[in-house]
């Protein structure tokens, strides 16, 4: 795995106006301008690869992957995004590393999980036609005679990561990409983006049921009673699990 050699790393941050000028030059083929941009943003790459240590890969390999993401960010950046370049570059750097880890087989889905996910999907569709509503997790589990946790795990394993440049919708004929949604808020800064990445990694470390409860509670705005009905457990159990998970997430994020 090799990337072009750079003249060195600079700790000082470039002014926004200077960054914009260098990006324009780099996008027009100025190699020196690209090297200057890379050298002044290598610290950003190093801070991002800290998220992926202890996964069986050399730090230098991860660093080179991050640099590839940085170069892609330089080539794809558009001043009309109205965000700082570093804010835009963070998900590009992280995305390049995650894409490699995924394609390299670091995340594998077993045949059994795939088969379970397929059965769950077909059962959900059949029960929806039969009941005239979405079936609860407990109803699907009873129908397939498997544990609810196994259903959640199978569905999670079958989920596909979203690409930053997927078109979400069109605005007056112009495509709106996922990256636009991430960076749309003018108040969004580097820390906000990094915090989101830390939160995403922390959620991934939770048990399937715990993650399901947090997602339903704080991302789908479900009440504890509604979650209890979906999961087929009591509201008290949901409350206890939620309290336990929030405390665990605080500890995990402190270590991040």
UniProtKB/TrEMBL annotation:
For the keyword Transcription regulation, the answer is: yes
GO terms classed as biological process: DNA-templated transcription initiation; sporulation resulting in formation of a cellular spore
Q: Which InterPro entries match?
A: Cro/C1-type_HTH, RNA_pol_sigma-70_dom, RNA_pol_sigma-B/F/G, RNA_pol_sigma-F, RNA_pol_sigma70, RNA_pol_sigma70_r2, RNA_pol_sigma70_r3, RNA_pol_sigma70_r4
Question: Which keywords does this Swiss-Prot/TrEMBL entry list?
Answer: DNA-binding, Sigma factor, Sporulation, Transcription, Transcription regulation
For this protein, the parts annotated as crossing the membrane are none
Q: Which NCBIfam families match?
A: PRK05572.1, SigBFG, sigma70-ECF, spore_sigF
Q: Which PANTHER family match?
A: RNA POLYMERASE SIGMA FACTOR RPO, RNA POLYMERASE SIGMA-G FACTOR
Function summary: Sigma factors are initiation factors that promote the attachment of RNA polymerase to specific initiation sites and are then released.
Q: What is this protein called?
A: RNA polymerase sigma factor
């Amino acid at each position: 795995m090799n990337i072009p050699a750079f003249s060195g790393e600079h700790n000082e941050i470039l002014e926004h106006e200077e960054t914009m000028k260098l990006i324009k030059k780099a996008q027009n083929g100025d190699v020196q301008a690209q090297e200057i941009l890379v050298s002044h943003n290598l610290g950003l790459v190093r801070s991002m690869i800290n998220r992926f240590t202890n996964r069986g890969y050399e730090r230098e390999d991860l660093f080179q992957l991050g640099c590839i993401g940085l170069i892609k960010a330089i080539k794809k950046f558009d001043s009309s995004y109205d965000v700082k370049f570093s804010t835009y570059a963070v998900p590009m750097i992280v995305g390049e590393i995650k894409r490699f880890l995924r394609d390299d087989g670091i995340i594998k889905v077993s045949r059994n999980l795939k088969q379970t996910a397929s059965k769950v999907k077909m059962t959900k569709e059949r029960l929806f036609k039969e009941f005239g509503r979405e079936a609860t997790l407990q109803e699907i589990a009873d129908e397939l005679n498997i544990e609810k946790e196994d259903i959640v795990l199978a569905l999670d394993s079958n989920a596909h990561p979203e690409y930053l440049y997927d078109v979400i919708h069109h605005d007056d004929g112009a495509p709106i990409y996922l990256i636009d949604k991430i960076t749309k808020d003018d108040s969004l800064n580097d820390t906000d983006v990094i915090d989101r990445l830390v939160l995403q990694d922390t959620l991934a470390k939770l048990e399937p049921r715990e993650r399901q409860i947090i997602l339903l509670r704080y991302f789908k705005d479900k009440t504890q009673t509604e979650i209890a009905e979906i999961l087929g457990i009591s509201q008290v159990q949901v409350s206890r699990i939620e309290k336990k998970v929030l405390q665990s997430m605080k500890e995990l994020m402190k270590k991040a």
